[in-house]
Amino acid sequence: MPQTFSTLRINPDRMLDAFNQLALIGTTGDGGVNRTTFSEAHLAARKWFREHIEASGLEFHTDGAGNHSARLTFEPANLPTLILGSHLDSVPKGGRFDGALGVMAALEVLKTVRENGIKLKVQLEAMDFTDEEGTHLSLFGSSAISGHLNPDDLKKPYSGRENFSAGLARAGLTEESLFTAKRKKESVAGYLELHIEQGKRLEKRGLNVGIVSAIVGYGSYRMAYIGQADHAGSAAMEDRLDAGQGVAAFILEARQTVMRDFQNCVANVGKIEFSPGASNIVPARADFLLEFRSPDEKQLNQLDAALMKLAREKAEQFGLQVTAEPLGKHTPNLMSAEIQDAFKAACDELGLSSVVLPSGAIHDAQSLVDICPVGMIFVPSVNGTSHSPFEYTEWQDCVNGANVLLQAALRLGL
Amino acid sequence: MPQTFSTLRINPDRMLDAFNQLALIGTTGDGGVNRTTFSEAHLAARKWFREHIEASGLEFHTDGAGNHSARLTFEPANLPTLILGSHLDSVPKGGRFDGALGVMAALEVLKTVRENGIKLKVQLEAMDFTDEEGTHLSLFGSSAISGHLNPDDLKKPYSGRENFSAGLARAGLTEESLFTAKRKKESVAGYLELHIEQGKRLEKRGLNVGIVSAIVGYGSYRMAYIGQADHAGSAAMEDRLDAGQGVAAFILEARQTVMRDFQNCVANVGKIEFSPGASNIVPARADFLLEFRSPDEKQLNQLDAALMKLAREKAEQFGLQVTAEPLGKHTPNLMSAEIQDAFKAACDELGLSSVVLPSGAIHDAQSLVDICPVGMIFVPSVNGTSHSPFEYTEWQDCVNGANVLLQAALRLGL
Fold first, then answer.
1. How far apart are CA A126 and CA A69, in angstroms?
2. Top-level CATH class of B3-216+332-413?
């Protein structure tokens, strides 16, 4: 690569200005953002993104799954596209870096290439994928692009059918339009994503950049323990069929099982509801969502089986029924060796320390592995905190990540 | 008591007809009712009750706390009132017997006395107390009558301030009007209540009637474990401050503590919510309601202390904060010996087997102990089930209870 290109850097102040504008949309007031997919704040962020793209002299594009992007195109028109991106949606009360940093860095790379008049052998596209966080369906924008979206997926969104349909309508989308977002394999040259680590590995080791080797696989279930409602004063403790006891034992022992037998894995119960739901009624039913992850496919299946076995054991122990409806399962996904090499070369060129590691979190990157080479980098998260308003990454680390993204894109696209 | 009165019986078919009409209002479709206080169904049930009273030739009365009643009055007008009653509100998805049986039986007693032209030395009143179940404030109608209602209670209703205010408005009440419902001690001769047992003691022993010796005291708290939100994929299990672990351990061990050290007591966690509340976020916060009961005041205080100690221990174990806001505490209440004797004599006269036992459930009866002698009887619940659509009492047991109520009222009022 010519020396003139290897010294190219993104404009940190311009990127910070855009990043800070975006962080105010749906702000929680304490550093975080509330931008669940198709919420008012999420749609406002996308409107801002579109206007910002158009004001930057880049081409705005959107598709039938609501993915929003900036394009920087070169002749001939049939050059394959190198996509850079992430997502502008957040979890409820999430942080301002998760997803947003990757989109803003991708956009900054396009601005930098454009203002330097660099001609590439690929089209560049800076993408905001729809609903990475799964307000409705995890990774559904990137799944639509890669052709992984299945009509059956639409029947059981996390948010429920009614909220999902209302959300699509607010975004001007339909269930039919989602399937038109699919891209042909030959049209995509690759996909690069910058993201905050959402863990402590880089911070603990004092490293600048993590080059992702693989993205963990995960499984999730909508589960319920079912017992019997009873008067919470007059029904004796030993006569109760208390659904709350089943789920409490499951939550405690699922953690113990993972920590004892599945040391590279995680599991979480993040949502729960008792029915009927009054202080003076023994819970007849405890509905909850279970999610678990592993970097290894075989281990993921073993963890799945162990958790389902535990769920049945706890039902038996407390005289309850248990149900478990699978919501999704993703196998672990390997990142492209070529792109990992490009990231490593970029880090070395920039004088940044790096390490190869798996990603414990799921990302849009994994949706794209079947249609193109995919690579991903992490920058450190302070205290490893994420999915929280207290999520924070030093701005210099954000700038480092954006420069690695730029340099890797140039290495792959020149 | 003259023989002519001791052979008097209520009209079982007339009571059944009224009971069945009422059970259709707010029906869950599977035998239960949804009549939370001030809901549309609850207000419809009260409208039906008013019309039914007026059609029966009894006098309808309501007060500033929304208590609804039928009155059968005698000369002179200043005779004290013997109140019979219970409540028409239900828990969410509750049963059709809880409360409703006591009100319909009370009404049937007044009809029977009226049609037999019996002259009593007390006024009779068949009462539907407001919000026994505590949609907003447990026992709030009977507390208003006895003068126990405190302006501070109104600041933290179970339903939240907004729902409480809206409910009062729907019922045509105001916070000021509630305090006008207070009755003078000299105006009340006594209070009798028939209720289903909501437990298995009568059924297990094959007995017809339970004569209540005391109503258990209870305490309740709005509690929360507070940890930190984190990404449920990338935060290692051992680094998490998962509020769900704290509440799960508390739910399990609270049950063990009660069963091991407080054998006549109960405890329940009937409502719970994780925040932020997504499958892929480690819960930062677990909000829940705790309730516990004991028939003995000293033991109630010991149980309270043991549960609070447990809550703090679990917080420490998982690195969490815990908060506990007291929602209310009622000391156990003793029933009148004179009224217990009247119930026993009535059972004997009717050839019904009976036993003296404490009530594990709270009831409006306990609100009234400071202003008049109070008594209460139970009839068997099939399987002990209550606060559930599957709650059921054989109709003959309901009739037995109503006849005991009638005979005791005659013994006390002639």
1. 5
2. alpha beta
